Amino acid sequence: MMSEFRDFRQELRRRRVYRAATIYLVVAWGATEIVSFLLERLLFPGWVISLIAILFVVGFPVSMILAWHFDITTDGVQSTPPTSAKGALTIALSSLLLLGTTAGLFFLIYPDGTTPSTEGVVQDEFSPPERSIAVLPFADLSREGDQEYLASGLAETLLNQLAKLENIHVIARTSSFVFKDQNQSISTIGRRLNVGTVLQGSVQKQGGMIRVTTQLIDTTDESHVWSKTFDRPDEDIFGIQDEIASKVTSMLRSTLAGSAIMSSAERYTSNVNAYDLYLLGRHYWHQRTEDALLRSIELFKEATELDPDFALAHAAIADAYGVLPDYSGIEVEDISGPMEVALAKAFRLDADLAQAHASMGLLRLKEGRIEESDRSFERALLLAPGYAMAHLWYGQSLMHQSRYRDAIRALRTARRLDPLSSVVSSNLGNAYLWTGQFKEARGEYERSVELSPDSINGYWGLAALSRSVGNFDQSIRYQQKVVTLLPDSSLQLRELAWAYAGLGMDDQADRWLGRAEAADADNIYTVFGRKLYFLETGQTEAFVEYTQRNLERQPDNQYLIADAALAKMQAHDFAEAVRLYEKVELREVAFAEPLFDRWSFMYGYSHALALIKAYQMNGDLQKANNLLSDYDAFLGQYFEQGIALPNAFYFLACLNALRGLDDQAIEALQQAYDAGWRGYRLASNNPVLKSLEPDVRYQAILLKIESEVAEMRRRFLLSG
Question: CA-to-CA distance for 138 and 410, rounded, in angstroms?
């Protein structure tokens, strides 16, 4: 037996089967890689690549049989003469080796035993909405590779046009463009975005000509619904857009169930150079950094100089200014004027431009003109129901109005339209956080981090969530990541300082606040942070001096007047506290302005409660009782909506203490503790709770929290 096996191996060598197998595998592997690359760039579906790979596998046993029987010599192809090595064993070994090698090659290519053509079709059911589409970023096939913005801009323009149809689900740009430069099958993309069709394409620009190749593909089986190549002069880019949009819409006509069909793409300019600048501006706008946003504004303005009637470019200027304060130290007051000018021009040119209405809604939201903001968002969504950004901004507006359930609905719609957007996930996380749905909030924040690891959105949310439930050590870890990403942001430096203060690490808190003040001492966020530091550490005298210095510089600033009143309240100068509080717009300070009582649910202080206490101590009981009733209604809206925030229970304890209901105050404080409240230092320095200090139950709660925070601090320091 062993001798026959040796003869068999020698026969394989003599017939050069080993050499043929090696050459075949090397050539097949290299050819497969090259063909896969070329076919993907040429937008062939995944099943074509799979078919070629299978053909190479099937060809292997054929090539081995030919190698056994024939040899290539200098005299040409010759039949290999037989030897004495014969018999059943030789035949059996040859067959087994051939079958085994072929099977091994197949499973090397497809280790799970299935080919991509069956993935997602046979393995499990996938039933996307019938009226759904994602427009993937078009590939830039230009020789210089410098037309990426044009390719992406063309795809985004088509996406925006399709989003205006009422009964069609169009995935937003943020999610569709996640798959740029990713080697994922159409069926996988369809599953992740939950769409039934995908439009993909490529752009190639050379000389004065442009070639655009497009394909509409069914994600369930990767079959082609429609495809076409356009070869036109580059100034006819608008005509190409018209034809693609019209054709794609007509392909979906049978599933639109009565929707209005778009006959052609809306054209906002006939100037190709202006359009080119607009697309390049949008390319920078989507990068969401201060430098990129400022560059986008320059490009949009250049586009309007070339074509003053380019409404979409005017609206884009407003869009860029509108998000700039979120990514820079620029204040809302600095962007209001330029936004107003740009939007006035856009509306004069096109009163029904959805992007302009949404941008106007964002401006009014930032200005605190909520009713006007809502009207603008509602108009934008009427004009473009699939505009994810409008749903997102509208959700933010609803949050400011404490319409939390409506906000969550709007943000969920934004997420459905833009499922892979880290910004949408983080905003939905904020809505869950402010409604006490902490598990859901954590899920959205973690999703945001997963989608965009280099963005602050998810980390900032996780830091705020951790702080809200008293996990100050975790809050520091997350906020450190945020500060690493935005090292010069006074807002983020302040947040890190506040986390350290919560953990009782006052020196660290003071150091980080110093860095925030060095970055921007007069920024409202920095002033807010120093105020919280003084409240947390009980440095009342320093607090009073700090607020007086601020008032000397800005004597009419409502924020600073209220802070000075709060400092006087902490110093038990009740008459001066009342005098200062009554200089400000009480409704703005106590109930409407987000930087005041709405933030108190995150940071643990309240101007309204401080003023009630000052009225009581100053003997003005009628005013105190009136304000008590108002604050009771304000606080009651949270509990009526089933919102169980830890700090809401803390403020309920304060409210009951002001009413002289000590038992109810202790009960509410215990509920706050059970929900995660750990603000024992703010409580111990709060004059509103002075009446509870002799109560052993009150003392026990604070001592328990102090012990827990001390242990948390010890573990944090040991962990390095």
Answer: 30
Residue position matching structure tokens 């442009």: 210
50 burial type by CB count under 10 A (0-12 exposed, 13-18 middle, 19+ buried): buried
Q: What are phi and psi of 425, to 5 degrees?
A: -60, -40
377 or 453, which is more confident? Answer: 377
Q: Can you give the C-alpha Rg of the chain in angstroms?
A: 34
Residue 135 is inside which H or E element, if any?
Answer: strand 132-135
> DSSP per residue over 58-76, as a string?
HHHHHHHHHHHHEEEETTE
Calpha distance 199→135 (Å, rounded): 5
- Which residues are CB-contacts of 160 (< 8 A; sequence separation ≥ 6)? 384, 387
3-state secondary structure of 17: helix
Q: Which of 337, 363, 352, 342 is nearest to 387 (CA)?
A: 352
Nearest-angstrom CA–CA distance, 218 and 215 = 10
Name 202's bridge partners.
139, 213
* pLDDT exceeds cutoff 80 at 529: yes
Secondary structure (DSSP) of 240-307: HHHHHHHHHHHHTGGGSTTPPPP-S---S-S-HHHHHHHHHHHHHHTT-SHHHHHHHHHHHHHHHHH-
The pLDDT score that the predictor gives to residue 14 is 66
Nearest to residue 214, comparing CAs of 201, 197, 204?
201
At 572, is the secondary structure helix, strand, or coil?
coil
* pLDDT score of 117: 43
| pTM of the full structure | 0.70
Is 123 a residue whose pLDDT tops 70? Answer: no
**Token match 């070329």: residue?**
38
